[in-house]
Fold:
Amino acid sequence: MIRFIVIVLYLVLYLILSLPVLFVEWIIGKFNPRLKAKSSMALVSWGFRCITLLAGTKVIVKGRENIPTDTAVLYVGNHRSFFDIVLTCTLFPGVTGYVAKVEMKKAPILSLWMKNIHCLFLDRGDIRKGLKTILAGVEEVKNGYSLCIFPEGTRNKVNDTFLPFKEGSLKIAEKGRVPIVPLTLVNTAQAFEDHLPKVKKATVVIDFGAPVYPEQLDQIPRRDLGNYVFKMIQDRYFAIKEEYFT
Structure:
């Protein structure tokens, strides 16, 4: 419980003390939007590294060499924990926003940092607004900003299981003509969700799979792209589970 309290206090202080920095970032953005995005990403990643340290989480990273460095990408991952964002954000090589639920737009201060790193807010209850968000995502990747999305649509609450991937979210890669990097997260719920409200030390594996180029796929897997990527992540998940946690 002490770790949880310390992390909450740290997060509150970070957000409050970052207000003057947000003003500086706003000024930078007036002259150089890309520099603003890059510096904001560095500051958010630093904050998340501190949370990872406070939580006592050991992160094993695999497959970093699979991340293309000459293009924006769409990271597609399974989702089990609040820590999924905390842990992955520090690993991306460039500015990478998340496709988050629209409710996060109301989070004071935090939502400003999210906008700075090009996060998008998806209204899952409104098809028309959801489509606009997907189209905005297409423009983001075309402009060179990567995105990370969890196509299950919400955090899965049962270990070693997966919710179906929503096909529409992967249209960002197909329409934006960027690769998909499968992102397999294993054991992240052990840090928090498996024993709420306590935060406990945990070992987590994060695996970046080989990139998938939608335009290079045959017609059948391309038509069923969500399920195609889902099976890649599912297979990798259980292989990692057997290697590290049995």
About this structure: Residues 33-55 form the longest helix (23 residues). The first strand starts at residue 57 and ends at 62.
